[in-house]
Design brief:
Length: 454
């Protein structure tokens, strides 16, 4: 098929993903550090040849997991970064309040609610809705403190690992062993057991309302302290739908070849979507589990439906690979760590030490928060920490809740500290640290309290 006539115009696509992508760090260096630490730690237990063999070949055991995690990040963004989803966000932004505290609360609420469904819905949707509301407020002469609005947009990171597309829970839910490498040691846990667990459900519901209220309460009243959205920091180009409208063939339809017409056929997309939705519907209607492979498949179908022409979906998936940069190469090193610790028996020793603290779930939360600063992908973090949970014979659901919350808060800190905050004009980095600290203290107190109580 011809590809020459199907290359999209680059005028709108390039500013969007890099602009949002600045909120995430480069994780290869930290992954290398973890791998070197694992090599050093396993020296007393493994001979050098075995270490090098595991370091080089451990990846093959986790290859399927990595591919599914990459799909999870890429196709989630492909669904959301579409004009159709952008039009939905425009309509939502059009009915939300335009006062300063109203905008901060609404942005945080949208981010958390959508994030509970899917990370891309919450993160991308929250940031874009926040900017749209700030622009509306600026046009009406209302001063809005944008650092708090941006913080609200990033709140999805706190809750996205607790909801319907939690990567850790989706891995654990896979009883086939394709994604869940611990299926023989810890078993498989249905998504309903995780999502509906009282500690998870109650904390998610409370945070959905109170976190946006907490940010709104921090809004300054003195206009001299308000830092509005600077034009240099704007992502939007007109409406959200227009900003996300990335695909436009260079050659007009009347000059298309047969290959071009097939590549841009909405009929082909419609057939694929109907067949795909029927397949997914049959799977779930007959009692099939929601797992990482099935979520990835469903998101691919929804991505094609959202994008329209097959080439639009292809171009967007190519663009959305930027969201998976923090897992593509680093996962090779995570797999080496997994293999080294497993073969050396250190997972058992770490599990015993964690159980010996008397507060293993609090310990899992703390470990996840610290490790999350080195491992931005929550799914990869669970792959490394899951064997500890199995070795300590802990309750998998409760441990998973603790680990996913720790990973989410780490992502929030990574977004503030390692993502070029100092390069955002007019923003004081200490302010973001203060907001992240307030959120961390509040979430930690609530979640650990509920885990200990329930």
């Amino acid at each position: 098929m011809s590809s020459e006539t199907s290359t999209p115009v680059e005028t709108r696509r390039d500013p969007f993903v890099p602009a949002l992508g600045q909120y995430f760090p480069e994780s290869l260096v930290s992954a290398l550090l973890l791998a070197l630490l694992a090599l050093v730690a396993t020296v007393p237990f493994l001979d050098p040849i075995t270490q090098l063999e595991l370091f080089g070949t451990g990846f093959f055991e986790l290859f399927a997991v990595q591919m599914l995690l990459i799909l999870f990040w890429v196709v989630s963004a492909s669904v959301v970064e579409s004009p159709r989803f952008g039009a939905v966000l425009d309509r939502i932004a059009g009915v939300l309040p335009a006062s300063q505290r109203g905008i901060i609360f609404a942005t945080g609420f949208v981010s958390l609610l959508f994030g509970w469904i899917n990370w891309a819905f919450g993160l991308i949707g929250g940031v874009l809705v926040g900017q749209r509301l700030c622009r509306r407020a600026r046009e009406s002469g209302t001063a809005v403190h944008y650092p708090l609005v941006l913080t609200g947009g990033l709140l999805a990171l706190v809750l996205t690992n607790q909801g319907l597309s939690s990567p850790g829970a989706l891995i654990v839910a896979d009883g086939s062993g394709l994604a869940n490498v611990l299926v023989d040691d810890a078993g498989a846990i249905a998504m309903t057991e995780f999502v509906l667990h009282p500690a998870n459900l109650v904390s998610s519901a409370v945070l959905l309302v109170t976190l946006p209220l907490l940010l709104a309460a921090l809004a300054p009243d003195d206009e001299r302290e308000i830092a509005p959205l600077d034009e240099r920091n704007e992502i939007l180009e007109g409406s959200i739908a227009r900003t996300l409208d990335h695909y436009s063939p260079k050659v007009p339809p009347e000059d298309w070849t047969v290959g071009d017409r097939l590549e841009n056929s909405r009929l082909i997309t419609a057939v694929v979507v109907v067949v795909g939705l029927a397949s997914a519907g049959w799977h779930f209607a007959t009692g099939g589990a929601l797992t990482l492979p099935w979520l990835a498949f469903t998101l691919i179908v929804l991505g094609m439906a959202a994008q329209g022409p097959p080439m639009a979906f292809r171009e967007k998936t190519e663009d959305a690979t930027k969201w998976a940069n923090h897992v593509v190469i680093p996962f090779l090193l995570y797999a080496a760590v997994f293999a080294l610790l497993g073969e050396s028996g250190l997972y058992g020793a770490i599990g015993d030490a964690l159980a010996g603290t008397g507060l293993p779930y609090v310990g899992s939360y703390a470990v996840a928060f610290v490790l999350g600063l080195l491992i931005p992908d929550p799914g990869s973090l669970w792959v490394l920490h899951g064997p500890v949970v199995a070795a300590a014979e802990l309750d998998v659901v409760v441990s998973l809740i603790a680990v996913m919350y720790g990973a989410g808060l780490s992502n929030l800190w990574l977004g503030f500290l390692f993502a070029g905050i100092l390069s955002i004009p007019g923003f004081e980095w200490r302010e973001f640290v203060r907001y992240a600290a307030v959120v961390t203290v509040y979430v930690t107190g609530l979640v650990l309290g509920l885990l200990l109580l329930l």
